[in-house]
Amino acid sequence: xKLTLKIWRQENAKATGKMVSxxxxxxxxxxxxLEMLDVLNEELVAKGEDPVEFDHDCxxxxxGTCSLQINGEPHGPDRLITTCQLHMRKFNDGDTIVIxxxxxxxxxxxxxxxxxxxxxxxxxxxxxxVSVNTSGNTIDANSIPVNKxxxxxxxxxxxxxxxxxxxxxxxxxxxxxxTSAKVSQYALLPQGQVEATDRVxxxxxxxxxxxxxxCTNTGACEIECPKGISxxxxxxxxxxxxxxxxxx
Length: 248
Ligand code: SF4
Ligand code: FES
Description:
The chain is α+β, with helices and mostly antiparallel strands. The chain has helices at residues 33-46, 118-125, 148-158, 165-169, 176-187, 196-209, 220-224, 232-246; strands at 3-9, 18-24, 68-70, 73-74, 96-101, 109-111, 114-115. InterPro entries: 2Fe-2S_ferredoxin-like_sf, 2Fe-2S_ferredoxin-type, 2Fe2S_fd_BS, 4Fe4S_Fe-S-bd, Beta-grasp_dom_sf, Helical_ferredxn, SDH/FRD_Iron-Sulfur, Succ_DH/fum_Rdtase_N.
């Protein structure tokens, strides 16, 4: 395949960015999207030019770092996959592909296609954990019965990989789907009840402090989420928040 790539180039968070066009040839349908970018970068390096910076690590849909806006969609045109799992067979010879970083005020550009998603880390640090008594009297987690339905829903929420596609897809740059997944995975388990009130209050407060927008029930986040995180988690977080607020 012969393609034209229009890629966002930006030196750092303060610099003005711009779209730059790169023609590319010899792309196979079985290549992943990131492998296609590897080919481009090898060509740029061979010409003595600055390669395009993009985030990646596992390249198998686990780490959540490979976050690209491809033709206006987070993680590209396919559903329930990350950018590293997107294959070039989804595109046609002669296509122009527009590649941008995830855009949100809370995700400042580091360079080119890499954004700083440490805002998500701070939301997680605000309450996305359980405290465990390790004094020697620790109760084996397996000895606490958990309703199967709740265990399944908790597991589903825990599959969120923190990629940020939900924020990039949202017209409000809301982080409600991410935060609600992290709240839900504990809210559904007995082990999460001890800190439940503080958890939801602190995580929502941090989410607001980071500058993410609010949810207006559009649902774009759920559609673009590579892990199929359900909007039901947002409803659960709202219930948890209301309940925590009334406890003072
Ligand atoms: S909710 Fe989905 S889109 Fe949002 S960070 Fe988690 S995995 Fe990514
Ligand atoms: S590189 Fe890890 S999810 Fe894509």
